[in-house]
Specification:
The chain is of the alpha/beta class and 157 residues long. It is built from five helices and five strands; from the N terminus they run E-H-H-E-H-E-H-E-E-H. It has a five-stranded parallel beta sheet, sandwiched between helices. The structure holds 1,3,4-trihydroxy-5-OXO-cyclohexanecarboxylic acid. Its EC number is 4.2.1.10.
């Protein structure tokens, strides 16, 4: 809990993590992922979090090790997670194991996707993350993040 100048004395911490290629939002296949940039998404997500009394930080990395280390950080800091694992969704057992640490620590971890992977290529139909997530929200564009934050707020509020 922080009681600093940001004024979220009772706010719950949530880390929003975006995986590989999501820094390119806005220009990456906009017909699928929309025109909102990653910076714009970060502003929206932070504001939605504040509306829900959640203190939100947004990070992005193309590097699997960063995502694994950030999950460890969340366990140590008792921070809930909203995770878009991007392509790691489909094959990263290392990230899955790190997410399992978050869930078994009693924290909420919501898997999010902008698109609905089940309506896309077959390799996207498998998520190795879903089995260790609290739940999954997919297919609503940037609204997937808002719904995920609402889920966190309801579970932990
Ligand atoms: C994604 C879906 C993944 O299959 C893809 O690799 C991504 C983005 C989504 O948000 O829809 O990078 O996670």
């Amino acid at each position: 809990m922080r009681s600093d100048v940001r004024g979220y004395a009772d706010a719950m911490n949530v880390l929003v993590v975006n995986g590989p290629n999501l820094r390119r939002l806005g220009t990456r296949e906009p017909e699928k992922y929309g025109s909102t940039t990653h910076d714009e998404l970060a502003v929206l997500v932070t504001q939605w979090g504040a509306d829900l009394q959640l203190e939100v930080e947004v990070r992005q990395s193309d590097d699997e090790a960063d995502l694994v280390h950030w999950m460890h950080e969340c366990v140590d800091a008792q921070t809930h997670v909203v995770l878009n694992p991007a392509a790691f969704t489909h094959y990263s057992y290392a990230l899955r194991d790190a997410c399992a640490l978050v869930s078994t620590a009693g924290l909420t971890l919501v898997e999010v996707h902008l698109t609905n992977p089940h309506a896309r290529e077959e390799f996207r139909h498998t998520s190795v993350i879903s089995g260790v997530a609290s739940g999954t929200i997919a297919g609503f564009g940037v609204d997937s993040y808002r719904l995920a934050l609402e889920a966190v707020a309801r579970r932990v509020g």
